[in-house]
Amino acid sequence: MLLNVKKRGNSLSVIVPKEMAANMQVEDGDKLFATKTPSGYEISAYDPNFEKKMEAARRGMKKYRNALIELAK
pTM higher than 0.90, yes or no? Predict the structure, then answer.
């Protein structure tokens, strides 16, 4: 899909077409992430650091499973 680049002050902005925004499930004010890939950059609504944080949370929940069960009572 073709994206247009516009100058905004000292920065450049990319216009995301309505169809693409709907497909990505992003709305005004949401954040997009640019990840460098071998072929350029990938723009997505997926936070690459979120998976790392969730994996750490899963390890903690597994390690302290019994304590969390007791706290939930």
Answer: no
